[in-house]
Design a protein that fits this description.
Largest sheet: 2 strands, parallel
Number of helices: 14
Helix content: 55-70%
Radius of gyration: 31 Å
Strand order of the largest sheet: 1-2
Length: about 325
């Protein structure tokens, strides 16, 4: 018999109110939901076809139905062969255990006469849906070209070549598909566009600076761990003590980068970063383990490469310049 935790039991037995359960993958959410369904069907004598069970995928719906069927069969095998349980086994095939799309489709098919929809409708497959989206996009873009709106033309020019706007069309479709996962797609998109309205004089207050700073901190802490691991290996009897001074400098520099970014922000961080010079590492002693020395040098290289990558990719220019460029993109995004 399954031993449920107190929280799982609460999720299984709670009644009379809305219930939201949040748990990580592999924590037994499906098993708890199956048990909650059994508890409702058996203890409250609710027929299984009166419940709506919605999943994200068809595979999950099939698994849920199978688990419920197995649970019913196990109960009957234990002697709980009452008429209500036998009835549930018969009703299980008609129970509404499906994806939200399947459920909505079922509602429309049953009540098409109330919403003035042809009962012979069908759901387009992915290929058809893609063609319809492209057709609508082509018509929309053509209308925008006819209006010659400067903002729109600037947008197309920013993401396409002078002879082909296919990259722009592909980007629009990618953005459209991506935002469909948001509860309020257009509101979410507007929020992201507003992120481009930064002020170059208030670098550290911009959303962009906050996001970039967090990313840089994550990378610097990873570099710090690598440099520290290199130092530990150098301190081993088979390691090279000549490496220690250089590794200490590496750790001091990375630590100072973290401190400045956290305390003073991107402006000061950039100034310190651009002035950094990596010290040369002395040759190892002759009696040092060559394999271990290679491991140490590789760890140090990875740590220094992270710092170089921050300089070349995340902050290729002064943050003030980047903020100005980002702000210039806002009208393009609004188009």
């Amino acid at each position: 018999m399954t031993q449920w935790t107190s929280q799982q039991l609460q999720a299984i037995e709670a009644q009379g109110s809305n219930l939201l359960v949040a748990a990580s993958a592999g924590s037994g959410k499906t098993a708890v939901l199956v048990q909650r369904i059994l508890h409702t069907v058996i203890n409250q004598k609710v027929d299984i076809d009166r419940l709506l069970v919605v999943t994200f995928t068809q595979a999950a719906a099939a698994e849920m139905r199978e688990r419920i069927n197995i649970a019913f069969m196990e109960l009957m095998g234990k002697g709980e062969n009452d008429p209500h349980l036998r009835k549930q086994l018969l009703l299980l095939n008609h129970a509404q255990i499906s994806t939200i799309h399947s459920f909505c489709n079922e509602v429309v098919r049953n009540y098409f006469h109330l919403i003035d929809i042809d009962p012979g409708y069908r759901i387009a497959d992915q290929t058809e849906a893609g063609l319809i989206k492209m057709e609508v996009l082509e018509e929309l873009i053509e209308k925008q070209y006819e209006q010659s709106d400067p903002g729109f033309l600037n947008l197309v020019e920013s993401f396409s070549s002078s002879r082909d706007d296919t990259p722009f069309k592909d980007l629009v479709l990618q953005v459209y598909d991506f935002i469909q996962s948001q509860p309020e797609p257009l509101h979410w998109l507007r929020e992201k566009i507003d992120m481009f309205a930064g002020d170059a004089d208030q670098i550290n207050q911009s959303i962009w600076a906050t996001e970039v700073s967090q990313l840089i901190l994550q990378q610097l802490r990873a570099a710090q761990e690598m440099a520290d691991a290199a130092k530990v290996k150098s301190s081993l009897p088979q390691g090279s003590k000549r490496y220690l001074d250089t590794l200490e400098i590496d750790l001091e520099q990375i630590g100072e980068l973290i401190r400045i970014l956290e305390d003073q922000g991107l402006d000061s961080f950039y100034n310190y970063l651009t002035g950094l010079a990596a010290p040369r590492m002395k040759p190892a002693e002759k009696d040092a383990d060559p394999t271990l020395c290679e491991e140490i040098k590789e760890l140090r290289k990875e740590a220094r490469d992270i710092v170089k990558q921050i300089r070349s990719e995340l902050l290729p220019r002064h943050p003030r310049e980047l903020i100005k460029e980002i702000k210039q993109m806002q009208p393009v995004m609004l188009a």
